[in-house]
Every structure is written in C-alpha cells, then in structure tokens.
Specification:
Elements: H1 4-10, H2 14-22, H3 29-41, H4 45-57, H5 63-73, H6 77-85, H7 94-110, H8 114-130, H9 136-152, H10 156-169, H11 172-188, H12 192-203, H13 213-226, H14 230-246, H15 250-266, H16 270-282, H17 287-303, H18 307-324, H19 327-341, H20 345-362, H21 369-372, H22 376-383, H23 393-400, E1 409-412, E2 418-421, E3 424-426, H24 431-443, E4 446-447, H25 448-455, H26 461-478, E5 482-486, E6 492-497, E7 502-504, H27 505-515, H28 518-527, H29 539-565, H30 569-582, H31 587-601, H32 603-621, H33 626-637
Parallel strand pairs: 1-7
Antiparallel strand pairs: 1-2, 2-3, 4-6, 5-6
C-alpha cells in the first residue's frame, strides 16, 4: 500500500503531504523521506536536504535517492554522486531500484555523459514496463528524464515521444517540468506556436509550485529571444534569475544569467552583459553548462573586437560539446566561429560548412535558427548567398519554419537606392520613405521641423507633416519590426528596428573612412557603389553626396601619399584606378596613377596611361584637360 504522503505527491499536493507529516506524533524514517521530497518540490531545498539526511541516518536507505536529487539541484554534484553510490541497491524494492537507475542517469548527465545516461534510462524504462501497474509511479520521472536526455542529444522525435509519455499521467510539478521540456523541444523544432502553448499550460499550474517558477521564466525567455523580442526576453530571464537565487537553484540561475548576457551582447550593452557572465561563472556548473558559458563568453568577446580570445573560447566550447555529443550546441559554436571570421569569406564558409554538416546530422536546422538571431552580421552574409549555394540551406530552414522576421535589413543609398529585406528589394510606394530612413540613419534622431525642412522644404508645413506620417505608416506596414518612432520626451524621430539591425551602406563607408584602419579604408573605397541618393534633389542629400565623395577621394589621396613615400607603387596604381572611376578628372589622382605606372612599367607605359586618361576626361569636357600638357612635360623630363 502506498505511503499516505506519497499519494499526495502523486497528485501534486505537496503542501498537503508536508502538513500531514507535521501532524505526526512519531514520524518514521520513511515519513521523513517523503516529507523531504515535499520540501524539495516546494523549493525548500536546504530543509529538504537536512530532513533527508536524517532519514538516511535513521536507516531509510532509499531516502538517499531523494537526497542525491536535492544535492544535484543545490549544485553539489560530487556529493550527490557519492550519496547515490552509498545507497545499497540490494536492499531496495524493485521500484526504488529503478528510481536509483534514474538518479544514476541524472548524475551521468550532470557529469557530461548524456549518451551513457540515455542508455541507463532506456534500461530503467524497460524494467518499469515489466513491473506493470506497480511501475506507474516512476514512469513519469523516468520518461521525463529520457525526454531531456534525448533532447540534449538532438533526438527530437524520441524526446517528444518520452515527454508525451510523461504528460499522459504527470501531475503537479512533474507535469510542469515535462511541459517546460517539451516547450523547448518544440522551440528547437521550429514549432513556436506549440512551444508557447506548452508554456501557457505549464503557467496555469504554477500557483502552488514555487519551485518551478524560475525554470518557467527561463523557458519563456528562450522563446521570446528566439523571436527577437529582446525586452520580453531579458525581463523573463531576470525574473528567472531572481527566483532561482531565492530557491537555491544555481543551474537555472546560471542559465538565466547567460540568457540576459546574450540579449545585452546583442544590444551592444557590453558592461551589462559582462556582469551577467561574471555571475554565471561564479555558480557551480555541469560540463554542458560550463561549455555554454564559454560559448556566451566567446560571443561577448567577439562583440568587443577581441577576435583571438573569442576564437579560443568558442573552440573550447565546441570541443566540450563534441565530447558530450551534443550536436546542436556544436553547430551553435560553428555559427559563432563563422561570425567571428567575417569578412574573411573562405574562413566563414569553412565554419558554416561544418555547421551545415551538423545540421544535416540533426535532421533539421530549426534548432540553429534561434542562435542565428544573435548573429545579425552572419545573417546578413547568408542573405547575400546565391540561390544555388549549398549554404543557403540555413535560409531554407527559415522558410520551412515560417519565419516572418528578417535576418538582415539593409538600406542601399549608393548608386541604386533601395531597401533590402534578407537580401531582397522591398518595394516602397513613396520615394520619400527611403529618403527619410537615409536621413535618420546618417544624421541620427531628428526633430520634426528638421525632417520637414530636409525632405519637404517647398511644401506647406501641414501637407509636409501628413507626408511624414504617410511615410511612417508605409514603412511599418511594409516591413514589420522596422519603424520611425516619435519619442515624446525628446520630441525626436528615430529608427526602431526590433527584429533585425538596419545597416546603411553610406554610414558603413563613413565609419570605415574615419576609423583610421588602412585595410578597412581601402575596402570602403572599393565598396563605394556610386553617388548618394542620386534621384534626390534635396539640399541635405546633395550635401551628403558631395561630402561622402570628397571623403572617399581625400582618404584615397592620403593613403597613396603614404604608399608613394614608401615606394609601394603597386598599391598606388590599384587605388588610383579605382578612385578615377569615381572622379575621372581629378588631377591629383591622375598624377599618382601616372607616377605609379612610371615606376612599375617605365615611361612608355606612363605616357600611354596619361593619354588614355586625358581622352576619357576630354569626352566629358570636350577638350583635353590642362594637366595633360604639364604631366606630359614631366614624363619627358624623367
């Protein structure tokens, strides 16, 4: 006959079971065992530990199983394993022996042996089935952990099956745990709607289960983060961290701290992210969690430009995940390593190819999509791939998962002007909508009066204000997540991109030219795709057009002056040829190119180059430029 407290446990009535125990005049060690489990389920881990130790000391050997469980939740993994090893299995009844196998498997997972754990659990499951109805009390716990182990190993179908078995009869805390686990399985299978449904079902059961609230918040944070809902995600992770700390649940607290770190890293808030990473590092962790911390640290280091340290961290994480056999996390590490290597295309492709191999081994790429959202630059790289590129499989996965939020938004203003969503042009009916975006991207938040003067200087102010609102409305309806918002406090209008960062080619080039890094300056000059907003006659656009072109030429001249002094004429020739495509009549550029050719290939080649440049300039101004005669005389003298 089942113990009275155990019957309450099976029904999820943990407080009733604990109340029953406190009314006992002379509780037995067995009574203490089940009361200790009730304390555990009510998130009172330290009292549970002490009561279970007393039960073991008084001769209830099976209480060592619950004691091992509580110690694991407290982060005392070594002591949990020692306590479990001390349980005399030959003195246990058949049901408790299966329970011991379950705890052994949980310890194996904490030790970084999920493959071994899944094998132990499969044996335990087989034994449970032979026990018939007598095995029912443990079916939920064993099938639940089986689902968790298979999920960690990327075996989605098996994980879903065993979690379904658990949910067929689970009540109380065990039902909530199974729903949380299945929600994560659904998340990494790309079934966001089903994941949210499981989370909502779990939420309705939390009122009497304080011990599960922290992990519930963590799971909610995962789902919100996967959809780019940064505010909701960080709020959920923060709540989970507080609850886990109050309940002495270091593993969940560390996961929530890492969740916050990823959001703040993605938002460029380095200090905040670092604080949460430091907290996670201070908590006891399993090998899997330790590797996850390294992965998140590598992500943070990469965001700070610490490329070498980031690669080291990420490679360590990848190696540990490889040892554990967790393909999903290995693929995550490869994605991060690919992102660190940008813009080195061969290196990026190498890591993406490895991620693709792991994706195929998993059978689906849905589990990689939430991680891609944390790497917008890598997402932008993927959107530029040709349709027949094998690495395009990651974009196919997004389509299969019905992802409506973009990976990359790009405002192209040089040469042809257009807004690209995941590499594809998005048609905008109002030509001023794109110009409004360009104005705010280059000049930052603006007052309404400044916007109206820049874009509609010749219109009636009321009509111009109406045009502004129409542009904002068109943008919000055409590209979900991309808006021009009005801040009431400052009165300024600014760009808000909640789903993917908005890049702007002109702004990227401006930053590179002013950054002082020679390689980036050269890349920016070659990336200059033409005049800024060529179709716009606005005064502000003309100012930006002239200013950007002059910055390109000025930076190029400074580079060539440095290279010429160092005798590096090959670089001078290449850059001068590029710059003359932009400003074919610029005398300084012509002189650098002619001098470079003279040094590299001699007077005859220099004369031919000069003549060709003069003829090209003459086609624009109908006469040979004045510099032709002067430079010709210089060549003759040389």
């Amino acid at each position: 006959m089942a113990h009275p407290i155990f019957r309450d446990i099976q029904k999820g009535r943990f407080q009733d079971g604990l109340d029953f125990y406190t009314r006992m005049d002379h509780p037995t060690p067995d009574d203490r065992r089940w009361a200790g489990y009730c304390l555990f389920a009510l998130d009172q881990l330290l009292p549970a530990r002490d009561l279970l130790r007393r039960a073991v000391a008084e001769g209830c050997h099976a209480a060592g199983l619950e004691l091992s469980l509580v110690l694991r939740y407290l982060g005392e993994h070594g002591e949990a394993a020692r306590q479990l090893a001390a349980v005399p299995l030959d003195l246990l009844n058949p049901l408790d022996r299966v329970y011991a196998q379950r705890e052994q498997a949980a310890t194996q997972m904490e030790a970084g042996e999920p493959h071994v754990a899944s094998e132990t659990l499969e044996r335990a499951w087989a034994e449970l089935l032979t026990l018939g109805d007598a095995g029912l009390p443990l079916r939920t716990g064993v099938s639940q952990l089986l689902g968790a182990s298979h999920a960690l190993l990327g075996r989605t179908a098996r994980a879903a099956y065993y979690l379904g078995q658990a949910l067929d009869q689970a009540q109380g805390a065990r039902r909530v745990v199974s729903l949380h686990l299945r929600a994560q399985v659904q998340l990494y299978a790309g079934q966001i709607t089903l994941a949210r449904q499981d989370l909502e079902d779990a939420g309705r059961l939390l009122e009497t289960l304080p011990g599960e609230r922290a992990y519930h918040a963590y799971t909610r944070g995962l789902i919100e983060r996967s959809q780019g809902q940064w505010d909701a995600a960080v709020a959920a992770f923060a709540q989970g961290s507080r609850l886990a700390q109050d309940g002495s649940d270091p593993a969940t607290e560390a996961l929530c701290e890492l969740g916050q770190a990823t959001v703040w890293t993605a938002r460029g808030e380095a200090g905040r992210a670092d604080a949460h990473l430091s907290r996670a590092l201070a908590l006891p962790a399993s090998p899997w969690l330790t590797a996850l911390i390294k992965l998140r640290r590598g992500h943070w280091l990469a965001a700070q430009g610490e490329r070498t340290l980031a690669i080291s961290c990420l490679e360590e994480a990848r190696a540990t995940f490889g040892t554990l056999g967790t393909l999903r996390e290995q693929a995550w590490a490869e994605l991060h390593l690919a992102a660190v290597q940008l813009p080195d295309v061969p290196a990026v492709r190498q890591h993406l190819t490895q991620a693709a191999h792991l994706r195929h081994a998993l059978g689906s790429g849905a589990a990689l999509l939430p991680e891609l959202r944390l790497l917008p630059a890598l997402g932008a790289f993927l959107t530029q791939l040709s349709s027949d590129d094998p690495l395009g499989v990651f974009l196919v996965d997004r389509q299969a998962a019905h992802c409506v939020t973009p990976l990359a938004l790009s405002l192209q203003t040089l040469g042809e002007s257009r807004l690209l969503v995941d590499g594809q042009p998005k048609r905008l009916g109002m030509r001023r909508t794109l110009e409004l975006l360009a104005l705010l991207a280059l000049r930052g938040p603006q007052a309404r009066s400044a916007i109206l003067t820049a874009l509609w200087a010749d219109d009636d102010p009321r009509r111009a204000t109406n045009y502004l609102h129409q542009c904002r409305k068109e943008l919000a309806e055409t590209v979900p997540g991309l808006q021009v918002v009005h801040e009431r406090g400052s009165g300024l209008y600014r760009i808000l991109s909640s789903d993917a960062p908005l890049s702007c080619d002109a702004l990227d080039i401006q930053r590179a030219l002013s950054g002082g890094v020679e390689d980036e300056q050269v890349q920016a000059i070659h990336a200059y795709g033409g005049a800024f907003l060529v179709e716009s006659g606005s005064t502000w656009a003309e100012e930006e057009r002239e200013g950007l072109e002059w910055s390109v030429i000025k930076t190029g001249l400074a580079l060539m002056e440095r290279w010429s002094a160092a005798g590096d004429y090959g670089k001078c020739e290449s850059l001068a040829q590029r710059l003359l495509e932009i400003a074919p009549n610029d005398e300084g550029l012509v002189e650098y190119l002619v001098q470079a050719v003279l040094q590299l290939r001699g007077p005859a080649a220099a004369q031919r180059t000069l003549h060709e440049l003069a003829l090209r300039a003459a086609r624009e101004v109908d006469e040979l430029p004045a510099w032709h005669a002067r430079l010709s005389r210089t060549l003759v003298l040389n």
